[in-house]
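User: Batch of two.

Assistant: Item 1 of 2:
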Amino acid sequence: MIDCYCLCCHKSLRYENDLLSMFYVDDVICSKCRDCLKYKPISFNLNGLKVNSLYPYDGHVRELLIQYKESKDEALFPIFLWSHINKLRKKYKSYTLIPVPSSSERNKDRGFKTVEEIFGCLNLEFADVLEKTSNVNQKHLHQSERHKIKSYIRFKDTCLHGKKFLLVDDIVTTGETLKACYKLLKPHCKELKALTIAYTKR
């Protein structure tokens, strides 16, 4: 029998708790690491855009997202949605995903597209219609300047009429990036919602 290991702590998943775990593994991380993620979903309205988000951006979630994105640890991508896949597939089964764009420089440096990797497990169609024209990072902008992020996002393709779309991203902080994408997309979408992995408490 091939053993399976937690993607976080690297301990065996087959001998975690009981006899059943020796034969049936239903997660990519152990129960202890799963509990550390502190799943606390919220919903809120952002200038007319309904946003759902899964985890507070702190503690273990913050550490794992930084490791995934900044340390280019691509193997971590299944962690965040794994235990919610069936529920999310059912909830958004008629939607097409639109990833919030990263700059081409960042994608090239990482070697993979972080948002597409995470949400690809939902097995939903992607519409790659937005692009970021500069490698500017919102966290490097002063809070009073973060609204300027909209000047760095533009359309690559506007063929979106008559469909339901889900705007997806890893983290929502001030919401300026989501608002910029929403403003561009809204006239072209029959319905548009947003889903993010994490949210800041503010």
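Item 2 of 2:
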Amino acid sequence: MWQLYLSGEIHSDWRQRIRDGIKAKALEVTVSSPVTDHAASDDCGDVLLGKEEQAFWKDHKAAKINAIRSRKLIEQADVVVVRFGDKYRQWNAAFDAGYAAALGKSIITLHDEDLTHALKEVDAAALATAQTPEQVVDILAYTMVTE
């Protein structure tokens, strides 16, 4: 059973498309991801540890709490998929890619062609760069062949 971590953009259905593809191909993959509820992720520090008046400290607490999950799941992953969308800058995704690279994890980046130049360093650390979730599933299916 492979462990797959899906990092990055949270405003589209790319994660579900990968899950659906894994199921359709009957791949032995367990999928994990960061908290994808934007408000819950942003507010977890205030909710769990008390309200902060300054935005910096609110974000600081939330980032650290969210990092507990992200670090653990990236460390356990066999493959890390990092999705960069065009609507928002995913600084956290770039950080996850760097963390995964530092751990020697296999990385697949996922982004539209128009982001290729901006992400050239991240793509250089990846073992594959896909433009669709279906390509990610195809890469997984190919690399998991046991013959």
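The beta strands are 2-8, 29-32, 79-84, 106-111, 128-130.
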